[in-house]
Structures are given as structure tokens and as C-alpha cells.
Amino acid sequence: xxxxxxxxxxxxxxxxxxxxxxxxxxxxxxxxxxxxxxxxxxxxxxxxxxxxxxxxxxxxxxxxxxxxxxxxxxxxxxxxxxxxxxxxxxxxxxxxxxxxxxxxxxxxxxxxxxxxxxxxxxxxxxxxxxxxxxxxxxxxxxxxxxxxxxxxxxxxxxxxxxxxxxxxxxxxxxxxxxxxxxxxxxxxxxxxxxxxxxxxxxxxxxxxxxxxxxxxxxxxxxxxxxxxxxxxxxxxxxxxxxxxxxxxxxxxxxxxxxxxxxxxxxxxxxxxxxxxxxxxxxxxxxxxxxxxxxxxxxxxxxxxxxxxxxxxxxxxxxxxxxxxxxxxxxxxxxxxxxxxxxxxxxxxxxxxxxxxxxxxxxxxxxxxxx
Length: 370
Known about the structure:
single chain; 370 residues; alpha/beta; 3 domains; 6-stranded mixed β-sheet; 12 helices; 12 strands; disordered N terminus; disordered C terminus
């Protein structure tokens, strides 16, 4: 008999009582997101981590990495792709990663349900409020306040004659529930992985969590994802976990243009763009060619971006910028950009990015209704 001594890790305490598969599955999903969907690379990293920290040595019954791989196949999380001759994740894995991202972010938020989107407008709606008001001609009386209405009538009636007048009618206030159309812009420029900081993984997690939230809680809402680097392109939600940063500049202009054109086709009254970025606009297309300048803020590029922000404002599209870098000149640009759109901006750290976005998404319905 022998013992292995190491520094205490709360993760082992948390994992006590869990099946070995569940512990390794959590790690696999995290690393798969970082690797951009490369199953082989993910498994190599897991083996390296296992060698350094003896994770499988904590399990009973000799459960090892080989058993874990076989169980993933049996559960339908990975499969062999004959064309590429590699193991690839399945749609079941995509859904599981999105769900995990949503759980992680909600665990960071204060307790409280998300509910429906509510507006500042009262009238016919889905949820009755305790406050009452006078009924207006043409309004639905299904939410009539019978007690208040009778009391109003009694004030001018007597025991011999009860007279119900139109002005006696009281109804309960109700919250209007509204739908929203959102485009999430994700910066895939090279700076998202520069300086030894992984900024793209938290951004992807927020995008996955937001998509899962909308699909499960707000069925009438729509979410479109647009990635942008040298150019902008729309991506499917299922591809979110596997986005990769490229050797790109930052074409903020094209990203906003693609987002605006998507929203032009939506019928919802509430339209918004959420933009996650860590850098300045550094390129744009001009006469079919890519004009770029990575040094400082090029006013030629910036002015075009500001023009696009104004176009969005005129089309009643709100832009919320989540800047995950704190350089002073970037903050000045964000303030100028936000002023042009009359939108909102958050200078968010990677740790609280999810909290900012979820709070804004759920709460800003109140400000968005027109």
C-alpha cells in the first residue's frame, strides 16, 4: 500500500461522490472549447493534465482515459469521421457545452429568475400587476378590478339606485411582454489571444450561454451570431464552441453592416446589437480592397464606423459594446461610438462579461420599447 501526497485541491472535494465520467466530461468540454473543437488535441491535453495531477488516480475501479473515450463514444458525444479520419464532436456535445456555459454564468449571477421581457408600457398583457387604473375606451376588461369598480359606483349611488358609469371602471395594470431580435458580434481578431491572455474563450462561452438562454426561455426572440476579423460573416449557433481566432485585423465597420442588414429583415420592434471586442477598428473595405492601419486610431476608419453607428440609431437599433480591454484611447473611442448610436457601453473584465451581457439582455427591454 502506498499514498500519494499533493497540495489540497478543492476540486477533488467537489468531485467526491461523482462518477469518473462526469469529472472528466467537465474537463473535456472546457478543453474542447479552447481547442476549437479539435478532439485529438483535447485528449492530448487531458493526458498531459492527468500525468501532472493524477486525476484518474483519484478514481476507484481503475477507470482511466481509455474507458472515458469509449464511454463518450457509447453516449454519442464523439464519433469517427471517415472523410477526415479523425474523431469529431456530435451535436449532442454542442448542446451540452452550451448548457454548461449557461450554468456557469448563472452560477456567477445573483439569484433570481429571468422571467419574460417586460416593457414600461401598461395595458393588455400577460402578467397582472397589483396596481389599478381607470379603464379607457377600447381596452380589454378581462382584468377588471371588480372591488374597486363597485366602490367607485357606491360613491355616487344610493340604496334605491345603483348607477355604474364608465368612469367607475377600474382595471389592473398588466405588463406588456415583447420580443427582441439580437445580433451578437464577436471579435476574432488576433489581439483576442495576444499578450498571453485568452479572451476568445470567455467571449465564446457568453455567446453559447446567451444562445441557450434565448432558445430555452425566450422562444419568440431571435439571436444571430456574426464573427468579424478582416471581414464579417454569419455563423450558426452549433459552431459557436469551435470558433477560432485568426491572423485578422478588426473590421468593425463590416461587422456592424452585416448585423444591421440582418436586423432589417426582422419584424420585431426591439432590435439590438451586442458587440464583444477588445480592440480598435483597424481595417475596412474601400473600393473592393482591404484598407488597414494597425497603428493608433485611424480617423478615416473611425469616422466610417461612427457613420454606421448613426445609421443603426436612425433604424432604431441599439448597440451595446462590451469592451474587454482598458487602454485609455480605446475607452475614448468607445465613448465616441456610444454617443453616436446613443447606445450603451461596458468596460468589462473577462470574469464579469457574462453578468454584464445577461443583465443587459434581460433588463433593457424596458428601455428598448418604442
